[in-house]
Write a structure and sequence with these properties.
Length: 117
Amino acid sequence: MRRFPVRLFLRDKLVLSSLITAMAVNAALWVYLFWAVKSAENIFLHYTIHFGVDLVGTYSDLLMLPLIGLVLILLNFIIAYFLYDNLKRLGLLMAVATPLIQAFLLMEGFFLAFLNR
């Protein structure tokens, strides 16, 4: 069984713009977390209105947020590529959802930076 060529998958303007947007938002998250949160021994990682701060970790734990974002970009576009040949709309949906996921991760990064000021 022949696979759909990757270059044709990336030639789709919606797929390419989604990939570029997702990578740009993820890069913005990396830069913002390096800039806004100074490395400290204890960093608040989770806050709820009922319990307050309920998860404390290190600076490297905070950087797991953009790293998870990179893994999600990779997984979503791999799944979108395999779906694109037979189920084009579902593949496009996977590709378009990726920048939205990155935007939510960026918002979480803003909240965590605000929490750690």
